[in-house]
Design goal:
By secondary structure, the protein is an alpha+beta fold. It has five helices and eight strands. It has one domain. It is 21% helix and 16% strand. The chain has a six-stranded antiparallel sheet.
């Protein structure tokens, strides 16, 4: 039996909800406003399309919608964290791009639970410090959420420098392949 989820954020792939910010305001009126991850970056013009952070607590409206199999939020990732949204935004932003072992940059869609489920299914782990500020990562399934990764060291940070979206973390090939949505990923 999984432990009870703590408060945190739904990390939402805006490509699955069009338009993402407007959808959140319409269908999650009881929730705190979502925070666009790209707000204030060179990609600010696309910020309302995601990825988004939605503050969430177990049992609240966002949680109930997330657990509905036919919901647009069903493929979001629950990031259990004690941090506030404005502290989490730059942390996750610094993980939107990663490098492969040869140094090539890639955009990482780690806000899509289907990709993370593939990595979890084959037993892959993220490098220590990847989940900085996050105590646990929960993924949805038809029978309810499950704990995919617990982070015993949430204070470790593999991307400590404020380089906005520039890649600082290298992921190995097996993890990159499990996270890829297609055979060919778009290079940064």
């Amino acid at each position: 039996m999984d432990v009870i989820r703590g408060q945190g954020f739904l990390f939402v792939d805006g490509l699955l909800i069009d338009p993402a910010m407007a959808w959140c305001f319409q269908y999650l009126p009881e929730c705190e406003p979502p925070l666009p991850l790209l707000r204030g970056t060179a990609y600010d013009g696309m910020a309302d399309f995601g990825p988004l952070l939605i503050p969430v607590r177990p049992g609240d409206q966002a949680d109930r919608v997330w657990q509905q199999v036919d919901s647009p939020l069903h493929h979001a990732v629950w990031l259990e964290s004690r941090l506030d949204p404005f502290a989490m935004q730059p942390i996750l932003r610094r993980r939107l791009q990663v490098r492969d072992p040869s140094g090539q940059p890639y955009w990482l869609r780690f806000y899509d639970a289907r990709a993370l489920s593939r990595a979890h299914h084959v037993g892959l782990e993220f490098p220590q410090g990847f989940w900085h500020g996050i105590d646990a990562v929960w993924l949805p399934r038809d029978t309810g959420p499950f704990l995919a990764w617990a982070n015993p060291h949430p204070d470790d940070d593999a991307a400590p420098r404020d380089l906005d979206i520039a890649p600082q973390i290298t992921l190995d090939w097996p993890l990159l392949q499990a996270l890829a949505n297609t055979e060919t990923e778009i290079r940064a």
